[in-house]
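Title: Prediction job returns without error message
Component: structure pipeline
Severity: low
Priority: P3
Assignee: unassigned

Description:
Job completed but the reporter wants confirmation the result is attached to the right record. Sequence as submitted:
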Amino acid sequence: MTTQLQTRYYLSVLSCFLLVLFSGQVFSAGLIDHLTNHQHTGDLPEISKQKKLRALVVYSQTDFFFTKNGSPKGLQVDLLTEYEKQLNKNIKKESDKIRVQYIPTTFARLIPDLIAGKGDIIAALMTITPEREAQIDFVSGKAMDVNELLVTHKSISDIHSLDDLAGKKLYVLKNSSYVEHLKVLNKTFQEKKLPAMQIVEADPHLRTEDIFELLNTGVVDMTIADDYKAKIWAKSLKNLKVYDDIAIKRGTNIGWGFRKHSPELKKSLHIFLKKVKKGTYLGNMLFKRYYKKDKWISNPNSTKERSKLLAFFELFKKYGQQYGFDALALAAQGYQESQLNQKKKSHRGALGIMQLLPSTAADKNVGIRDISKTENNIHAGTKYLAFLRDRYFSDPAIRNDDRMAFSWAAYNAGPAKVRKMRALAKKMGLDPNVWYGNVEVAAAKMVGRETVEYVSNIFKYYIAYSLVKDGLVKSKRINDR
């Protein structure tokens, strides 16, 4: 089969499996307003008795998110809507019908939460590995073969075979099958007396699309991804280079997961798989619906942008030390707000690098005037961020990384809204003390994507700065002491 035909085949199979296609609106019964902590590990008869199928989902801008009106949307939502129709095919009475209930969690928690009975299925296209099959079962029909391909920034030109990866650094999704397969490849390099690859597992808060954005801007050089995912994203992120002929693993399977010893659910899911495989090629439709957006992160580590960081780093370090913040985290926020441009002024009157309103800076909780001056601006923004952190998020139950995320969210949306977001998260059965995978889900439902993307972008810029920090310190371009 030629490469072109393989590409069409894989995308066709993916598109068929992600059949939505006639679904317009998600039923209100699928909303997650009334989640409970009830746990059970029953098969389909128990699910029918409970009248709800609990689907474990991971919040992302493609698989599961919320529209501006608070409705759940995404590839997995559309797919589950079709499965819900199958479950209720012969049920006439509305009160007897099974409804899908979405249970947001993190990628790392999908299998543990399924085993613990917090959900009934994993609604994510997980790679099926022997290690995962030892814990749970999958529905894929062994028909959804994917290859784990090398993806690089388009400027990379010295990779022609797997052996050329020897000695290279790859930045990959944490807890993914890619890590396992790269370690196996490293063993073959050792046998060949080739230098080992440096396998860098991404921060657990980063998702595949986040890594693609970092790659697209040149922050990182190489990653590994499933072929269908890489090819769809490459349509939008033009700096991605996908290597069809360089795979660390070929012929892996992907599918939904469910608990072992669930024969009735297994039978039902396999019937559904056969149904959706009858679809047509819909890759373009899926791309337009879920994978295309207007704004992507830029590269704060380009030569021009790095010079800005170097120019302001001592101020970020000074006030970071004074108020207990990582200088690079403050710089990342400044980059998100203004691209470190002190001359920037918003239509609302926010000024400078930290995009603060003069009235906020003059408030008694900040008390810094003339924020048209760079140092005053950074000082005021940092002091205000510290005020938000200490006033609203000082609970010891909140971990440091979540406290930082909450503070950023409050800087963007205001502390009152973040308080409401946390209350909604608790109502939804999520942890109100955890931003990532929890309150961010409630935030998206309440106010849309703006605040979620604001925090997410700052975090990606922080990762970007952190990746070059050691080099800048060693070259004495910054003093981190």
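Comment from assignee: result matches the submitted record. Residues 187 and 226 are 22 Å apart (CA to CA).
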